Amino acid sequence: MRLPNWLHKLASPPHFYRIAGRIEPWMLWSGLAAIAVGAFGGLLLAPPDYQQGDAYRIIYFHVPAAYLAMQLYALMAIGSAIGLVWRMKLAYAISAATAPVGLAFTGLALATGMLWGKPMWGAYWSWGDARLTSVLVMFFLYLGYMLLHASLEERSTADRAAGILAVVGVVNLPIIKFSVEWWSSLHQGPTISRLAAPAITWDMLWPLLVMIVGAVLFSLAVTLTRARAEVLLRERGARWVRDVVAVGA
Amino acid sequence: MRIWLTVLEQEFIIYFKKWIHIIINIGFFLVSTSLFSIVAGLEPELLAQWGAGVIWVVAFLSMLLAMPLLFQPDRDDGTLDLMLLSTVDPAWLALAKAGANWCVFGLPLVLLSPLLAASYGMEGTALLVLPATLALGTPALILLATVAAALTAGLRRGVGLLALLVLPLALPVLLFGVRGTELAVDGLPAGAPLMMLGAFLFVAVGLLPWAAGAALRATAN
Amino acid sequence: MSEFLAMGGYAAFVWPCVGLSFAILAGLLLTARRRLRGVHRRIRHLNVAPEEGAWELRA
């Protein structure tokens, strides 16, 4: 199997470095603007929930973080898989750039989930909950990826080794989620009144959607910045890197 | 295939030369499980309930002690590099290593577990279900460990990292193993978790040696 | 205004969540920028003295 031509062109490191540098500010500022609008809408404009009161507003931070935690893991694993199959340095660079961003959002999802859980379930943490546990596992997988990558001296070795871990992890994640769900459905834990949101109203929904879009744009912008740094490191001997660095751009 | 058997045989010879590791492993398993039951001081019925979790987690930990032995010694003395240069498929190499490691460090735990289960106050089918879950689950754990050990074998302080990598991946096996035993303790049929463990092992045997082989290639010097 | 800040009695949960979220966003942005700048600086340094700086690139 060969890669399509346009992808090959995009995958050339100097091209990527330039394009990413051009796109990144747009993504960043539109993302930040969307987050600002979403936060304003979520905290001020949206009506309080008839069951949860104002505590449900944590959703505007928790859901985007949890969504990104998963999506960024997928990005990291796909990048690693492409790197392993086609030996593409750029894919590895993107994987390595994604990991810290994903780790941060996974941590945020866990922390906001705990802050939401306390007033709603009466406990910060519930080991019986499938989602909490599988997100925690994902947190460890991100951490493992980063630690493994950081401990291997040779960068290309680190890329491949951590990439294998990411791919094995992505196969395992659905199994983990399923197993914990199955386990907790049989296990009599604390009865969690997970508040089913019956047809959430538009007033409540739009800030959430705006927030998710903003968070995606923001995280991609940050990932691109990191990926540019990773590309430079991987290509540090190349002529174009010296030119870029000399300009100081 | 013949080369594979040779590797397996070599592994056994090496492990039995270092028989002290095997004793340490079994000792750790026995001491830790009995330590828990002494310290926790639970009522007999509760003890049987907790037993599944305790025995499974301690079995996992004692196997974790032996996981660095999968590749670290061979990596250190250069044997691994030689093997990778040979015509042996690294996936088969990983499978042989995992098989030998399980026979030496996993199998004794399976065989000892009815004894521990009895000391934890389990009765009837639970005394059979616990070893069955371990027999299906521990090989899958070793196969997961093979990938992690192959990834960390080149590192100086790889043992801690190995544990960190294996732990999240091993979670489903642990959950199903404990769940199956708990069901048996409660006198319920435990077929479903056992079948899940079997399915997991089946997939693990098919896929993980291949991943471990790729990992060995990736981290080879 | 104070009603808004009180968050219907859930201020102790909502505001830490908001604060933490923005802190993490800021942290991500700053560390990413710093990393890119740092890599630039290190490669420039490397080009001046190719052998000396090589090992510290791995960070």
Structure description:
The complex is a heterotrimer of chains A (249), B (221) and C (59). Helices cover 79% and strands 0% of the residues of chain A. Chain A is an all-alpha fold. Chain A has one domain (14-184, 202-247). In chain A, helix 3 packs parallel to helix 7 and helix 5 packs antiparallel against helix 6 (155-186). The longest helix of chain A is centred in the first third of the chain and has 33 residues, at 13-45. The radius of gyration of chain A is 20 Å and the shape is globular. Chain A starts with a helix and ends with a helix. By secondary structure, chain B is mainly α. Chain B contains nine helices and no strands. Chain B has helices at residues 2-17, 19-40, 44-66, 72-76, 79-85, 90-119, 126-152, 158-185, 191-219. Chain B is elongated and about 55 Å long. Chain C is an all-alpha fold and 59 residues long. Chain C has one domain (16-57). Chain C contains two helices and no strands. Chain C has helices at 2-6, 11-48. In chain C, 24% of the residues are buried. Chains in contact: A-B, A-C. The A-C interface holds A 28, 35, 39, 43-44, 48, 53-55, 57-58, 61-62, 65, 100-101, 104-105, 107-108, 111-112, 115-116, 118-119, 153, 155, 218-219, 222, 225-226, 228-229, 232-233, 236, 241-242, 244-246, 248 and C 4, 7-10, 13-14, 16-18, 20-21, 24-25, 27-29, 31-33, 35-36, 38-40, 43-44, 46-47, 57-58.
